Recover the amino acids of this structure.
C-alpha cells in the first residue's frame, strides 16, 4: 500500500479488517450540546472547517498502520477508530444521496471501491462486532 494515498485508493481492491486483539469501535457523540464535543462531532467539525477554509491541499486523515496479510488483505493496526468512523460517515452519505436520487455511475463505482462491491465489504471490524457494524452502519437494514 502506498505511503501517501486517498481513502478510496486505500480501500479499492483491498479488504481491510480489524484483528481480534483490537477493541471494538467506541467513538461517541454527545447527547447534550452543552457537553464538550466527543470524537465523532470533532471529526465532523474538522471536516466542516476544512471545507470552509477553501484549502488547496488534500485533507489529512492522519496515519494508518497496516499488517500485510496477503496481496489484497490487510489488518489495521493503528487508526482503526478513525477508519471505522470514515467508513460509517461515507456509507451514510451514500445512503442519504441514494435516497434522494439514483447514484451516478461514478458515485456507484466510488461506493463499490470504498464500502461494498456486491457482497464483498471493503472494511470489517472485530469479529464479535462485525455483523452489527454491517447491519446498522453499512447495509442499514436494522
Amino acid at each position: 500500500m502506498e505511503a501517501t494515498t486517498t481513502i478510496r485508493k486505500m480501500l479499492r481492491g483491498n479488504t481491510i479488517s480489524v484483528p481480534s486483539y483490537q477493541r471494538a469501535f467506541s467513538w461517541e457523540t454527545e447527547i447534550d450540546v452543552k457537553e464538550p464535543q466527543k470524537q465523532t462531532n470533532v471529526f465532523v467539525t474538522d471536516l466542516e472547517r476544512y471545507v470552509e477554509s477553501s484549502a488547496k491541499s488534500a485533507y489529512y486523515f492522519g496515519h494508518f498502520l497496516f499488517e500485510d496479510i496477503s496481496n489484497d488483505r490487510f489488518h489495521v493496526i493503528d487508526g482503526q477508530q478513525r477508519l471505522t468512523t470514515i467508513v460509517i460517515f461515507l456509507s451514510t452519505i451514500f445512503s442519504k444521496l441514494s435516497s434522494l436520487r439514483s447514484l451516478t455511475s461514478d458515485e456507484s463505482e466510488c461506493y463499490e471501491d470504498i464500502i461494498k462491491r456486491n457482497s464483498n465489504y471493503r472494511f470489517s471490524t472485530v469479529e464479535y462486532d462485525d455483523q452489527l457494524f454491517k447491519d446498522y452502519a453499512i447495509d442499514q437494514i436494522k
User: Anything to note?
Assistant: Residues 1-21+61-142 form one domain. The radius of gyration is 16 Å.
